[in-house]
Input
Amino acid sequence: MYSTFHRIPAVLLAIALSALAVCSAAPADEDRPIQALVSVLPQQYFVERIGGEHVAVQVMVEPGQSPHTYEPKPEQLVALSQSSVYFGIGVSFEDAWLERIAAANPGMLLVDTAAGIERRHIEAHDHGDDDDDHEEDHEGENLDPHIWLSPRLVKIQARHMADALAELDPEHAQEYRDNLAAFEAEIDALDAEIRQQLAGLTSAKFLVFHPSWGYFAGEYGLEQVAIEVGGQEPSAAELAQLIALAREEGIRVVFAQPEFSTRSAEVIAEEIGGRVLLINPLALDWAENLREVARTVAEVLGDE
Ligand code: ZN
Output
């Protein structure tokens, strides 16, 4: 997975690294917010809840992009060179180049917000043949990176963030701890609300194009069935299997997300006389989005 890094022209890296030199020579400004970088949008929400006005957050994977195929832009490399902290979450592009930028910006604190989280294996259909090499590559040994979609796991990520901010900015450490406590209480309330929303549904299985919702499903007693196979559209035979499964289970709704093509989701929906609904795993307003997704899933699975 180092190929992504190599596709960044050397000259751009040179620009980023010279910006670095300027940055480390500049005197520290105490009123300047901590410059923090995150990989995906929901993490921006988490950092802002904890850091408040003392932190300025920039996100690497911008709206509409997929963290699986994302490549950094030159101005983002500059941002990286000027940041005090990077909150990693274990999405695949991080493997490709974070380590090297960190080596070039030794002043930057690199926080693994997934530390202590045991990642589940991501759904992959069994091809029953030898062409599943691409699955090995996908999502790093098939571990599911979508840990921001479980409120329980977000509490762990938030704690890592608060610890790091307190370390970087001891003057406001108490504020970060208080904000963390408030955020944890908010997460608990959200979790209880979703749990209630999703209790006692007539069906538990839902079809989704990209398997983003495994942690969410696991948390609330649901079962995600992925259409995508190792990051690829399914073959005709796999599609036929999914259609048969959907018919058997009485599934009428196929979920998809804005970052991926909905073609095969639409094919399945058409075959089962159902429809495609978009749910977004990468929305910035994390809490409201999860609430909305729970409401949608409850409606869909309550009917089936
Ligand atoms: Zn994903």
User: Anything to note?
Assistant: Residues 66 and 108 are 25 Å apart (CA to CA).
